[in-house]
Write a structure and sequence with these properties.
Number of domains of chain A: 1
CATH class of chain B: Mainly Beta
Distance between the termini of chain B: 6 Å
InterPro entries (chain A): OSCP1
Number of helices of chain B: 0
Pfam families (chain A): Oscp1
Strand order of the largest sheet of chain A: 1-8
Order of helices and strands of chain A: HHHHEHHHHEHEEEEEHHEHHHH
Number of strands of chain A: 8
Number of helices of chain A: 15
Number of domains of chain B: 1
Largest interface: A-B, 66 and 72 residues
Protein name (chain A): Organic solute carrier partner 1
Organism (chain A): Vombatus ursinus
Distance between the termini of chain A: 48 Å
Oligomer: heterodimer
Structural class of chain B: mainly beta
CATH topology of chain B: Methylamine Dehydrogenase, Chain H
Helix content of chain A: 40-55%
GO molecular function (chain A): transmembrane transporter activity
Strand order of the largest sheet of chain B: 1-28-27-26
Shape of chain B: globular
Radius of gyration of chain B: 18 Å
Chain lengths: 389, 334
């Protein structure tokens, strides 16, 4: 379908990832003068955020990203975020990474679904980019990179027709299809139902440029209005007050895509599985090999452009846990439903030796070589700290 | 008034596409057949009045060079004078099956031709007019296939080259005699409508210009064009002249599906605002103008409607599908 949807998907999911990581790192950090070597500090948080944003907005990588291309599966895309999340000193294990990706995708699915007009997915993207700029306002070099991308988004998408945005929206919604993970912050805010489906409001402002429903106008052969009849629509809508700004700076009006997490509203650790309606027999699961080949090419192209700073050297990787406790994290890893498994290795579990090697080569760079085994790892005491809060 | 009947449950969630439901009534054992698109495949199922699915079949978009899993854009039963064919459009081309989906009788691959690299290739918009099946494409071109009474000798007989942007939907109705020659209408991404007279050579009768807003769904009834737009508006035009007769602020979000019950003049509209409306069309005996009356509103809670169809020509029952909803909802008159 639309060959223009990948950049929007990547930037928005990336934005959600940064919101979650930022909140988790803030919640776990310790004043520098009190921190042991293995504990998170504000300096570490900034470093992780800077490293990830620098990698995300790498020029060569974005060049590949903005080339017109089809969307690949959620599994393939996850490999990119896996790599992105590990481009700095932070380390996430499988269960935490799964959860991070679940939260990101459900958040953006909600934003795409609730977008007033298909075109407004751009405003959602701008909200994410605005927030990303806020994260790195002390680093002018990275800021330039982000602004460059910002301009590119405006240049590529500013001239697309409404029909093309409809196609982008349809393509994104197909990408998110069959994903019904319940996220507790959404359940608590009553924007998601217990069956995993989102709540669609039938009141409030209509999209910019849309008339409030409820009126029938009839015209004669000369085009003169001859009759007006009102009807009961069933919703409680009002006119939209203003349109969000599609410029580099400005009021986006739309709040979808802004940061919903804060210290007082932490990233909830509870993610529950899909509703049990997964007897789905999609082709994806029946023919993994040909899929893997295309996806590998896709990954190789994109990741080839991702420059990973390999000077993390002898430093221990800092572990970040997306769950409240280690036990919870372990439990999540064990009980994750099969159909939600993202393990990229599964794609190429087949015979093809060469392909195996290719993927290993691509993935190799973000494998956690120096995963801290010793108890001096920074992550370990974070949980204890959390308990005291 | 319409009342909800037991839904038909499915194993797949419909994709958020335009007109993502097709209904074929089988009179003999009183079955209703449904076809809907889920990503790379199409679900066919038939159900009796109690809602229990009796028969299910899955069809896949034909693969080819390049993309492994082309997505299906639409599935539609074309009722021709002597046979019924199920037509699928996808990113790769056009597939025509016997009506139960058992045998593929014809395949037409899309020609990427001189498409610019950023152009998405697909076919979309299907209708049957006489013994012709018309299918729209990404370039705006409409392909006309001549279908024999039986057998696979389907021939591409004509290409209609009026639209410049992707086709969204096509509608047709049997010609109503001398004074009403318009029997097909094509719609596109810019909202442009073209009204045609079908035949060995299709003839363009009128162009009704759009407003830049896509027209995802269009219907034709007794020389009247009903068009549903991406901004929630429904407009009713005189097909022969293109004159606007009715404009309805119908929905708060984009309309995804329109349908017409020809025997009753009822119009069904479904949109992303989670509402389904039923309207009654009639011709004012004095002025001859088309008038519209609102009959029924139905809120399908938390569902972005992507397909809505009447299940009988009198419009006494209809079915609705929604993105992420693993059921076909059914309603009937009380």
């Amino acid at each position: 379908m639309s060959v223009r949807s990948l950049p929007l998907l990547f930037l928005n999911l990336g934005g959600e990832m940064l919101y979650i990581l930022d909140q988790r790192l803030r919640a776990q950090n310790i004043p520098a003068d009190k921190a042991r070597k293995d504990e998170w500090t504000e300096v570490d948080r900034k470093r992780v955020m800077n490293d990830i944003i620098t990698t995300m907005f790498n020029k060569k990588f974005l060049e590949e990203l903005f080339k017109p291309q089809e969307l690949y599966s959620r599994k393939a895309l996850r490999a990119i975020y896996d790599r992105l999340a590990h481009c700095s000193i932070m380390r996430l294990n499988q269960a935490s990474m799964d959860k991070l990706y679940d939260l990101m995708t459900m958040a953006f699915k909600y934003q795409v679904l609730l977008c007033p007009r298909p075109k407004d997915v751009l405003l959602v993207t701008f909200n994410h980019l605005d927030s990303i700029k806020d994260f790195i306002r002390d680093s002018p070099a990275i800021m330039n990179q982000v602004d460059e991308t910002f301009r590119q988004v405006i240049e590529v998408y500013g001239c697309l027709s409404a029909g093309e945005f409809h196609l982008i929206r349809q393509t994104l919604l197909i990408f998110f299809q069959d994903m019904h993970i319940r996220v507790s912050i959404f359940l608590k805010d009553k924007i998601q139902n217990s069956n995993g489906r989102f709540v669609l409001p039938i009141s409030g402002p209509v999209p910019w440029g849309t008339e409030v429903p409820g009126l029938i106008r009839m015209f004669n052969d000369k085009g003169e209005e001859v009759k007006r009849v009102e009807f009961k629509h069933g919703g409680q809508y009002v006119r939209a007050q203003s349109e969000g700004s599609f410029d580099l700076y400005g009021d986006r009006v739309l709040t979808l895509g802004t940061n919903i997490y804060s210290v007082s509203r932490p990233v909830e650790t509870h993610v529950s599985g899909a509703s049990k309606n997964s007897a789905l027999n999609t082709k994806e699961s029946t023919a993994p090999n040909s899929l893997a080949k295309e996806e590998l090419n896709f990954l190789a192209r994109l990741m080839g452009g991702m420059e990973i700073n390999k000077n993390s050297g002898p430093e221990p990787g800092f572990r970040l846990n997306l769950f409240t406790t280690d036990e919870e994290e372990e439990h999540a890893a064990l009980t994750r439903p099969e159909e939600l498994s993202y393990q990229v290795i599964n794609i190429q579990a087949a015979q093809d030796q060469q392909r195996n090697e290719e993927l290993s080569r691509i993935m190799g760079e973000f494998e956690v070589h120096d995963q801290p085994q010793q108890s001096t790892s920074k992550g370990d005491d974070l949980l204890a700290m959390m308990d005291e809060l | 008034m319409y009342r909800r009947e037991p839904p038909v449950s499915m194993r797949a969630w419909p994709a958020a596409l335009y007109n993502n439901l097709c209904v074929l009534s089988v009179p003999a054992p009183r079955l209703t057949q449904f076809a809907l698109v889920h990503g790379p495949n199409v679900q066919l199922l038939s159900a009796a009045s109690d809602g229990l699915p009796l028969f299910q079949r899955q069809l896949h978009a034909k693969e080819g060079a390049g993309l492994s899993f082309p997505l299906v854009t639409q599935a539609y039963w074309c009722v021709l004078p002597f046979r019924v064919l199920l037509v699928l459009t996808s990113q790769r081309g056009i597939q025509m099956y016997e009506s139960d989906g058992s045998v593929m009788v014809y395949w037409h691959a899309l020609d990427s031709g001189d498409a610019p690299p950023a152009q998405a290739l697909f076919a979309r918009g299907i209708a049957a007019s006489g013994h012709y099946i018309c299918v729209g494409t990404w370039s705006g071109r409409v392909l006309v296939f001549d279908v024999p009474a039986k057998g696979p000798n389907i021939v591409l007989s004509e290409e209609l080259d009026e639209h410049r942007v992707p086709i969204t939907d096509i509608a047709a109705e049997p010609a109503q005699g001398q004074d009403c020659v318009a029997d097909m209408v094509t719609a596109d991404d810019s909202g442009l409508l073209c009204v045609w007279k079908s035949g060995p050579e299709f003839k363009l009768l009128t162009r009704i210009s759009g407003f830049g807003t896509p027209c995802p769904s269009v219907r034709l009834w007794q020389g009247t064009v009903a068009a549903g737009y991406g901004d929630g508006q429904i407009r009713i035009f005189e097909a022969s002249s293109g004159a606007l007769h009715v404009q309805i602020n119908a929905h708060a979000r984009g309309i995804c599906a329109l349908d017409l019950a020809p025997e009753a003049g009822k119009l069904l509209s479904g949109a992303e605002d989670s509402f389904v409306h039923i309207w009654k069309l009639s011709r004012n005996p004095d002025s001859g103008c088309i008038e519209v009356e609102h009959c029924h509103a139905e809120c399908v809670t938390d569902t972005q409607v992507c397909g809505a169809r009447f299940c009988d020509p009198r419009g006494s029952s209809f079915a609705v599908t929604g993105y992420d909803l693993a059921e076909i909802l059914r309603y009937s008159c009380v």
